[in-house]
Amino acid sequence: MANATAGVVSLHGTGMCAGARDMVRLGTVRCCYRARRWDPVTCAAPSGSVTEDVVSKPRRLPRVVGMGSKLIACGSAVPKFEISNDDLAKIVETSDEWISVRTGIRKRRVLTGEESLKGLAVAAGKKALAMAQVEPDEIDLVILCTSTPNDLFGTGAQVHTALGCKNAWAFDATAACSGFLVGLVTATRFIKGGGYQNVLVIGADCLSRHVDWTDRGTCILFGDGAGAVLVQATAAEDDGFLGFDIHSDGQGYRHLNAKTSEGGTEEVISNTNGSTNFPPKKPAFSFIQMNGKEVFRFAVRCVPQSIEASLEEAALTSSNIDWLLLHQANRRIIDAVATRLQIPAEKVISNLANYGNTSAASIPLALDEAVRGGKVKGGDIIAASGFGAGLTWGSAIMRWQ
């Protein structure tokens, strides 16, 4: 905001309908009010509508731009059903040794029965809120980072409603295995540029439902899970989000994808001016397709570069890192990046052996275990990086509060 100072804020009665308020411009301050009183304004909705009881209320605190961010809590959840490498050996031609030597994975969890991505996301979010001792109605925004929503149009709003975050809004962020990192950066921008106070970032994926379980090249890698962090506003001088770097390159799409494919056939309508492509066929997605060698080359080249760029922005070096936390894709990738950055093995956080690649859930899931296990403590500097389909990749340097 131009010429902004610590005392210049923007006040909004969020969600008020146009025409229900007057607007007054005070230099760089914009105040929205109705009859000079902060009365709730109910947006008109048809009787019986699901939005009939939704009331726009004034914000609890004024928006203050230029704030810093801090990570204050985390939570995670995984399905009950566990599949070991020995279990997979009964399905495809493989073995525990073959899988563990090449990937570092020994078991993974997958959704079964009535379990759902939404359920995992809600459970992880509740644990993060409990750790932070923050009530659901204190949350301003919920970002659900997922590539496998329960609904084509997204699941974030369902999650935020189930959590009881009645004063928040929500959306889905899709960037595959980089999703959580993208959601985390987005959360800090809403705090810094939008004056938000509490943002809940949830990474959740159920890639087991998009895996060909007869293909040993992919089915051995993936599992399901969810992880969450609560990002909270703090004074700019106490900012715990020290630097970040994010990228995408669509040319790498061919190496890792789950593209749309032709679904079931439909009877062609006769009167289509000769077109044989109408009506469209039923939509569907192919199983995950991956060129493992190319993805490995991409990760070990781009991830260290990204972390180095983030460290430069943070005015730090790899020697300042207390913990290296990478997307849990492959043990060889994790080891190669740590070696490149000269970070010793005892400073690397990994739970890959127990959960496999949980996509957008992998970073917050591993972080939650490390925090609750006493590894990560207040003030520790964490270098985190996500990378995967898109291709997308990025990193962030952050201080755990």
Tell me what the structure shows.
- The protein has 401 residues and is α+β, with helices and mostly antiparallel strands.
- It folds into 2 domains: 1-63, no CATH class; 68-252 and 289-399, Peroxisomal Thiolase, Chain A, domain 1.
- It has helices at 85-88, 96-103, 117-132, 156-163, 179-194, 292-313, 331-341, 352-355, 362-372, and strands at 22-26, 29-33, 41-42, 55-56, 68-77, 81-84, 107-110, 141-145, 169-173, 198-206, 224-234, 241-248, 256-257, 260-262, 283-285, 289-290, 323-326, 348-349, 381-388, 392-399.
- Strands 5-11-10-8-9 form a 5-stranded mixed sheet, with helices on both faces. A 5-stranded mixed sheet has the order 12-20-19-17-18, with helices on both faces. It has a two-stranded antiparallel ribbon with strand order 1-2.
- Strand 8, helix 4 and strand 9 form a beta-alpha-beta unit.
- Helix 3 (117-132) packs across helix 4.
- The longest helix has 22 residues, at 292-313.
Give a brief rundown of this model:
The chain is an alpha+beta fold and 401 residues long. It is built from nine helices and 20 strands. The protein is globular.
Question: What is the topology?
Answer:
Elements: E1 22-26, E2 29-33, E3 41-42, E4 55-56, E5 68-77, E6 81-84, H1 85-88, H2 96-103, E7 107-110, H3 117-132, E8 141-145, H4 156-163, E9 169-173, H5 179-194, E10 198-206, E11 224-234, E12 241-248, E13 256-257, E14 260-262, E15 283-285, E16 289-290, H6 292-313, E17 323-326, H7 331-341, E18 348-349, H8 352-355, H9 362-372, E19 381-388, E20 392-399
Parallel strand pairs: 8-9, 8-10, 17-18, 17-19
Antiparallel strand pairs: 1-2, 3-4, 5-11, 6-7, 10-11, 12-20, 13-16, 14-15, 19-20
